[in-house]
TrEMBL record:
<keyword id="KW-0560">Oxidoreductase</keyword>
<dbReference type="Pfam" id="PF13640">
    <property type="entry name" value="2OG-FeII_Oxy_3"/>
</dbReference>
<dbReference type="InterPro" id="IPR044862">
    <property type="entry name" value="Pro_4_hyd_alph_FE2OG_OXY"/>
</dbReference>
<keyword id="KW-0223">Dioxygenase</keyword>
<dbReference type="InterPro" id="IPR051559">
    <property type="entry name" value="HIF_prolyl_hydroxylases"/>
</dbReference>
<feature type="domain" description="Fe2OG dioxygenase">
    <location>
        <begin position="105"/>
        <end position="201"/>
    </location>
</feature>
<dbReference type="GO" id="GO:0008198">
    <property type="term" value="F:ferrous iron binding"/>
</dbReference>
<dbReference type="GO" id="GO:0031543">
    <property type="term" value="F:peptidyl-proline dioxygenase activity"/>
</dbReference>
<protein>
    <submittedName>
        <fullName>2OG-Fe(II) oxygenase</fullName>
    </submittedName>
</protein>
<keyword id="KW-0408">Iron</keyword>
<dbReference type="InterPro" id="IPR005123">
    <property type="entry name" value="Oxoglu/Fe-dep_dioxygenase_dom"/>
</dbReference>
<dbReference type="InterPro" id="IPR006620">
    <property type="entry name" value="Pro_4_hyd_alph"/>
</dbReference>
<keyword id="KW-0479">Metal-binding</keyword>
<dbReference type="GO" id="GO:0031418">
    <property type="term" value="F:L-ascorbic acid binding"/>
</dbReference>
<dbReference type="GO" id="GO:0071456">
    <property type="term" value="P:cellular response to hypoxia"/>
</dbReference>
<keyword id="KW-0847">Vitamin C</keyword>
Length: 207
C-alpha cells in the first residue's frame, strides 16, 4: 500500500502543526489495521517482550515508577508485517512533513507501550537534554471502545495555561512538536495500549 504525499489526511496534519503545533486525527487508521496492531502489542506483552520504560537516555536511563508506569518494546522494520505497514504510513507522513514544512526529518523511532491499570506518565516534554533530534511526536492509540470514565487521557499543556484532554481511542493519532508541548498521561481504570514514536532530525556531526 503506498500513500500519496498529498493525501488530505496528511495535509491536515501539516496544516495543524503549522498553525498551532499539534494535531488530533480521530480516524487515522482503518479499524482492521488498528486491531491488528493492538493484537501484535498484546501478543508481545504476553510473550514477556515489553519492559518497564526508562526515563532519560543511556547512562541517565532510570526506571522510576513515580514518573511513568508503562512497559514498552521498540519496533524495528522487518519484525512483523503489521508493524511494517504502519511504518510505511508513518514514512509517508514524514515525507509530507519534510516537503511542506522543510523539517528535515531523517527517521522515525517508535515503541509499543502498555500502561497497566493505574499507571500514568507525569508531565514531561519529549526531548532529552543530551539529544535534541526528536522533533515531532506521533502517538497512535490502540484501544477498543474507550470511554471517558476509563481515564487514561493524554493531557496536552497548550498556551496560556490551557489544557486539552484526548481520549486514547483506537485509530486516533496525535502529532505534536516534541520540544514545545508538555503533556502527561492520566491514570486509567483499564489497560491502555499505544504505539508512540518520534520523527528525528539528523544529528549534528563534524564534517
Ligand atoms: C510518551 C508519551 C503519550 C501517550 O511516551 O512520551 O507521552 O498518550 N505518551 O501514550
Ligand atoms: Mn511524551
Amino acid at each position: 500500500m503506498s500513500i500519496p504525499a498529498n493525501h488530505p489526511l496528511l495535509l491536515r496534519i501539516v496544516d495543524d502543526l503549522a498553525d498551532r503545533g499539534w494535531s488530533q486525527q480521530n480516524i487515522f487508521l482503518p479499524q482492521g489495521l488498528t486491531a491488528e496492531l493492538a493484537a501484535e502489542c498484546r501478543e508481545r506483552a504476553e510473550r514477556g517482550l515489553l519492559e518497564p520504560a526508562g526515563v532519560g537516555r543511556g547512562d541517565a536511563l532510570l526506571v522510576r515508577e513515580g514518573v511513568r508506569g508503562d512497559s514498552i518494546q521498540w519496533i524495528e522494520p522487518g519484525q512483523s508485517s503489521v508493524c511494517d505497514r504502519y511504518l510505511a504510513i508513518v514514512d509517508a507522513l514524514r515525507q509530507t512533513l519534510n516537503q511542506q514544512l522543510y523539517l528535515g526529518l531523517a527517521d522515525f523511532e517508535g515503541h509499543f507501550a502498555l500502561y497497566p491499570v493505574g499507571a500514568f506518565y507525569a508531565r514531561h516534554v519529549d526531548r532529552f537534554r543530551d539529544d535534541d533530534r526528536r522533533s515531532i511526536s506521533a502517538v497512535l492509540y490502540l484501544n477498543d471502545r474507550w470511554l471517558p470514565e476509563h481515564g487514561g487521557q493524554l493531557r496536552l499543556y497548550l498556551n496560556e495555561g490551557q489544557t486539552l484532554d484526548i481520549e486514547p481511542q483506537g485509530g486516533c493519532l496525535v502529532v505534536f512538536r516534541s520540544a514545545d508541548i508538555a503533556h502527561e498521561v492520566l491514570p486509567a481504570s483499564r489497560e491502555r495500549l499505544s504505539l508512540t514514536g518520534w520523527f528525528r532530525r539528523r544529528g549534528d556531526s563534524p564534517l
